[in-house]
Amino acid sequence: MKEYMLIFRHEDAGKIVSPEQMQLWMQQTMDWLGSIAAKGKFEGKGNGLIFDDSKVVHHNKMVTNGPFGEIKETLGGYVIVKAESADEAAEFAKGCPVLQGEGNNVEVRRLAKDDGVH
């Protein structure tokens, strides 16, 4: 079984939401993760990412406030799941509540392990 990171990208990350909307989204997220866990495929790892104290370190060692202002989307967080293939991990991603926002997406990436694959 391989591990995959599901990376949440938001186009609407700066949008203000009501406490009720946030509570609904959190419940949907917990239900979605619970459905993956019920299959024994949730690794129990993952976090949201906070933007208000972000920095970007550039190749020339210059540090700027981040995330990048010129990009359309921001990274909102991630979870790690176990799957037989990227296709199976993508099926899990299809149920992610992040996808309710137009233009939002979930990137699926296999984690590098000590298996000789880079």
Quick recap:
With 118 residues, the chain is of the alpha+beta class. It is built from 2 helices and 6 strands; from the N terminus they run βαββββαβ.
Using the alpha-carbon principal axes, give the shape.
globular
For the biggest β-sheet, the strand order reads: 2-5-1-6
Low-confidence stretches: none
State the end-to-end distance. 17 Å
Which band does the percent of strand residues land in? Answer: 25-35%
Q: Work out the helix count.
A: 2
Order of helices and strands: EHEEEEHE
Largest sheet: 4 strands, antiparallel
Name of the CATH class = Alpha Beta
Task: Give the strand tally.
Answer: 6
The helix/strand class is: alpha+beta
Helix content: 10-25%
| Rg for CA atoms | 16 Å
CATH architectural name: 2-Layer Sandwich
Average pLDDT, rounded to a whole number, is 83
CATH topology type: Alpha-Beta Plaits
Number of domains: 1
CATH superfamily: Dimeric alpha+beta barrel
